[in-house]
Amino acid sequence: MLRVIVADDEYFARKALIKMLEEMELPIEICGDCENGQDVVELLKTCQTDLIITDIRMPGMDGLKLAEYVREHELDTEIMIETGYAEFEYARTAIRYGVKEYLTKPVNDRELRSGIENVIRERSERKKREIWELLDISYILQNSKLCREMFGWTGEQAKKYYCMVLVNGREKIKSKAWVEEWLGKYGKFRDVRGYFLKEEKSCIFLAPSEEIFELPKCFGKSTVADMAYGSGDKNWISFSGWHCGEKELEQAYRECVYSMNERILKPGQIFFYNAKENFQKIITGEQETRLSNAAQRGYSEEADIVIQEIFSEVEKEDVSIYSFFMALMQIFFVLNRVLCLKEGERDQGISAGYLLFDFKMELYRFYELKDVRQYVDMLVKEVCQKNTEGEDRSMMEDLLDYLERNYAHDISLEELARRKYFVSSSYLSRMFKSYTGQTFMKYLISYRMDKAKSFLECSQMDISDIAACTGYNDPSHFTQTFRRIYGVTPKEYRKQYKENAGMFG
Asked: Per the confidence metrics, is the pTM higher than 0.85?
């Protein structure tokens, strides 16, 4: 349902417009009518509104000032302005404030209906795009139906070569459309498609081409300044190798992540996938032993010396990102073994097993080597039991970030404590409850259900797909949990939402 406020200082004109809206038989709810812009502002504080239809000439705060207020406060509300003054200057100012329609009095029924339908349609399409942002890209790439829908994959497109491009960094890119234009300007790409990935704070592009060409030659140093203008100077861009066919999309994405991770060790803003890098062993057996002994005894200063030696070796030229990743894994395996020893598992046999630190997401979220060093220092101090309130806060912030990116996966507090932070589960549980005010499981379930509601409201995904996207392998378990929290099944919730919202088109 489109919630509308009508503002006009002329009483009869305001009531006539409301009657016109009510007779259109569109999914509209009039949630208020006001005499001036200031009254609208007060109503906005208590009423969620999708559209304001306002006269441009009103006492106090006029229509343009109202539009300016909506824009400055970044409200999710559209503006349509009506006026008897058909002057270009008004129209130009209205457009600057993001006004959707500029209507002249007397308002034409057909023109008003067209404007309303456009607003409903655009908001519906935007909600669908927002759902794509919430989905995990790996899940999309493994689901042919979703993949085709996201990239508009067709039989003709499957015959073309393509590479995948990622933009990621410390700030959101200024313009997705600009990056698409940049790729076409310097490369031989046509029909580039891009999507934001909110959970990964990235933007992914599929760039098709009729022929294979040398990417580094087209996107060299001369294009960096131009790229920074459109994507921001605190962002990086990575290219996969060349591929063909839908089945290679997942591999292309892995190559993008691999090349993006090179930014940790190498200068520059543009990176290309290189499949021929050599592996180098960075940590010696002697360093591993020293780190283990220092961590067991709680000697954080001695452990810091070993970590400094390792990172100094990493800073040398020609160290590959994969070699660095394996060195990090060695450090974490040592910390994991120390945790097992401290918890009395010496006699049970110690197996490092797996760790919750992977190349795709955990390493990918770091931008520079100093960021990784801070993370390692935090873990070492925790294992050495020299933790402080500030370090506990850093761990909780890292954990909440991890949950935001991995809520769709099967995770538990026990595994996070042992396999990621190398502390006892009881310690991590206490810290989490103290920091968030909720138990770990209650927080995770609440977060997953909130995401599920978004998927149900804004997508046509099957309930089983939504269950999988929110961390439930068993759809019946997902349904039971959803009903326990919201009092209705996911299917019933979707039906109720559509009936109340009156979704258009």
From this structure: no
